[in-house]
Design a protein that fits this description.
- By secondary structure, the protein is mostly helical.
- It is built from 14 helices and 2 strands; from the N terminus they run ααααααββαααααααα.
- Helix content is 68%, strand content 4%.
- The protein has a two-stranded antiparallel sheet.
- A hairpin with a 5-residue loop joins β1 and β2.
- α10 crosses α12.
- The radius of gyration is 22 Å and the shape is globular.
């Protein structure tokens, strides 16, 4: 999906007289490890908490040819480049109401939005549905975390971690303290310490206790109670599936096209 979107952005930017290099797209493996608790022991054993993966992303952004290209443009063209790519508020904004209150806006016209329009068919509808669905957690997570089934599983996880020499009340505390735990260590030492802790977290969450199973079951239960958002969720899933099919076709066509 992201690869196809980047190719569409490239086409749009070139149509406006600019060069554009599609950025690196994170794979499935790169995206793991960002949830509440690690749930894949194999991934944890290989990547720890993903610090090295994050550094790879940061390095790629620093060497991004688009930034170098844009910065080398004359000032007026550099401004036009930015507005063409990301939009200009004066040309109109889309607003999406958030389930937890408030709203979020995005420029209506840009190469980014045109690419999404091509993929999703109706970018304003997608933007509003996507912002509604991806912000539902704020409606139920506070209650979920107070649920006795969750707190019981979390206490069991914490006890498992203490038995392995790690005193943490929850996974979030590990992520808060991780930079301090590896401070002053070499890259090899830091990675080894990170992997050791991550594997213990994942094993305690998946093998030694029911934390992951309980959290997943409760999330399905609590999200299922949000009946007023069922249409948004269904619409979001429908547009996502349609966009995925379009993305496959676009990416296949682009990668199979002969070089000029």
């Amino acid at each position: 999906m992201d690869q196809a979107r980047e190719l569409l952005v490239k086409d749009c930017m070139e149509a406006e007289g600019f060069r554009y290099w599609p950025g690196p797209v994170a794979g499935i493996e790169d995206r793991q490890g960002s949830g509440y608790v690690l749930d894949d022991v194999g991934w944890a054993r290989k990547h720890g908490y993903g610090t090295r993966l994050q550094k790879k992303v940061e390095a790629a952004l620093q060497s991004d040819p688009d930034h170098a290209y844009a910065n080398a443009l004359p000032e007026a063209e550099r401004v036009r480049y930015s507005k063409t790519l990301d939009g200009n508020p004066v040309d109109g904004m889309l607003t999406a109401e958030l389930p937890t209150g408030g709203s979020i806006q995005t420029p209506r016209h840009s190469c980014q939005t045109e690419a999404k329009e091509e993929l999703y068919g109706d970018f304003p509808a997608w933007f509003r549905a996507e912002k509604a669905v991806t912000n539902l957690a704020g409606l139920y997570v506070p209650d979920l975390k107070k649920d006795e089934r969750f707190t019981t599983a979390l206490k069991a996880w914490s006890a498992c971690m203490r038995e392995r020499g790690h005193d943490y009340p929850d996974p979030a505390r590990i992520r808060e303290q991780l930079p301090h735990l590896t401070k002053g260590l070499s890259d090899t030492e830091a990675h080894a310490a990170e992997v050791n802790l991550a594997v213990d977290e994942a094993e305690c969450a998946t093998k030694e206790t029911s934390l992951v199973r309980t959290a997943r079951a409760l999330e399905r239960e609590y999200r299922g109670r949000l009946r007023e958002y069922r249409d948004d969720i269904a619409n979001h899933q429908h547009m996502q599936l349609r966009a995925l099919e379009r993305a496959k076709n676009l990416y296949t066509k682009a990668t199979c096209a002969p070089d000029n």
